[in-house]
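Page 47, continued from p. 46.
Same chain as before, 152 aa.
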Amino acid sequence: MYDFLSNLNLSQKGVLIFWSVSLCIFFIFLVILARRISIGIKAYVENNGRINQYLAAVPSDRIGTVNAVYQNTRKHLSGALLLCIVGGTFGFQRIYLGKKSSAVSMFLFFWTGIPTIISIFDLTLMPKTISEFNLGVVESLYNQIAAPKLEN
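Result:
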């Protein structure tokens, strides 16, 4: 019986083990990213449904005002994804979302490589993040402008 590993010297075995472990870690990383993308897309769909419910509940005399303010305040997924891909290491996507303190820390430590890893994870959950931001905008608008006023 031919044993492949017995014919390898110690350094070849070490290289084989290194690449095997690296490949396993890479596949685990891919599974984690795929799961996060799935979570992000599911939340994106749910939050957009809630946004549509809020907009549908706005009285007709206030819909123009709510739509105008919402269109000027909401964030776009395509812009956030582009910023995350192009300047994620420097925290550009965080600036776009108004998270300036975390953007500054990402910019200060970009040379470590950690912000690059963080931006990859930001990229996977960007649909969820954007839809949560936009849902917050619509909820705020609804409560300030369109919610029925209760009289005492």
